[in-house]
Amino acid sequence: RQVQFQKRFFASKIGRAGKNIPPQIQEMMERKLYNVTNHPISILSNIIRKYFETEKITDIEIPGEKFICESSFNSLVNTKKCFDDVLVPKDHVSRQPSDTYYFDDDTVLRPHTSAHQIEMIRSNHNAFLVLGDVYRRDTVDKTHYPAFHQMEGVRIFNYDQINAKDYDHAKKIAENDLKQTLLGLSSHVFGNIETRWMPENFPFTDPSLELEVFYNEDWMEILGCGVIHDQVMRNAGRDPEKEVGWAFGLGLDRWAMSLFQIPDIRLFWSKDERFLGQFKEGEITTFEPYSKFPACFKDITFWIGEDYDENGFMELIRDNSQDMVESVECIDTFTHPKTQKTSKCYRINYRHMDRNLTNEEVDEWQFKLRERVESELELELR
Ligand code: PHE
Q1: Is the CB–ligand 1 distance for residue 100 below 6 Å?
Q2: Environment class of residue 30 by beta-carbon count within 10 Å: exposed (0-12), middle (13-18) or buried (19+)?
């Protein structure tokens, strides 16, 4: 029913050429920021790449092993690759059209680079990185954007190379190697900082972990990882009684935001020279904000039904004001005592990154938004 809903929404209102991926997302799919020289996303991905390509990453050295980095996969992938092959349960939220963009019933815009693990392992790669743009429908704030970037890493050993006695022993060795790799990487990139491991739960790894670093006076989650699930190994054509491997996935945008001190995730997509001109390949420098334009708050309130899709509302806002919205916050939820109808009030913060917005201009955006909430989301304004 949800797929139906999103399809109807985009096919009739926003999408074009029968696709249910909004035009602003289609535009982002073309940008490939990791290939743009002197862009913070490419600078950071190159630093990570180089680390894996040239450093001795752990005590386990395998003659002839060389990490390769694949960044040319299409961001449209089939749901089998993206979900089934990596054991994502049928009812997992990431499969919902409220969270993931569906191109058609069995094709999505990948929400993670893990979608390519299996094909890489199948092609006999045992040490590789996958770099790519990934997409998730989400709320609007300074750290969330429907498009961002991930780097996936995988290393596979056969039991002989690591002197493993049995499956459990092999898993233990792989887990230790994974930890050594990622602690090495994080200190290479972030410097000498405090770290901690947190237990996690990913369908495709067992055990699963998260690494947090203490940076800019706060704990920050920087990646998810684990020992590759034996069923994933089998799905990729490997025998878990003979081979074992680890995998990790990290979000480049969050890393770059803290390393370069970039205050708003929208800036990565800016075409303004005052942003783009500040960075240089190979260097992590501090971003100098060139604008502190005033915020402009507008509220909107409407009645919602049971099938209300909040991410759909967020997307409408992004589409309506073309990235001029810094954040959207639900400031009140009210249920009418008699009718039991529920309404939500959202506070929208309009703030452009590159220029000043006038109040009249924002009023126009807000007026258009109100109209579209009624006509496209079919919600009743209060
Ligand atoms: N795919 C996971 C995510 O997007 C990250 C991950 C990759 C975790 C590989 C474990 C192993 O959150």
Answers
A1: no
A2: exposed
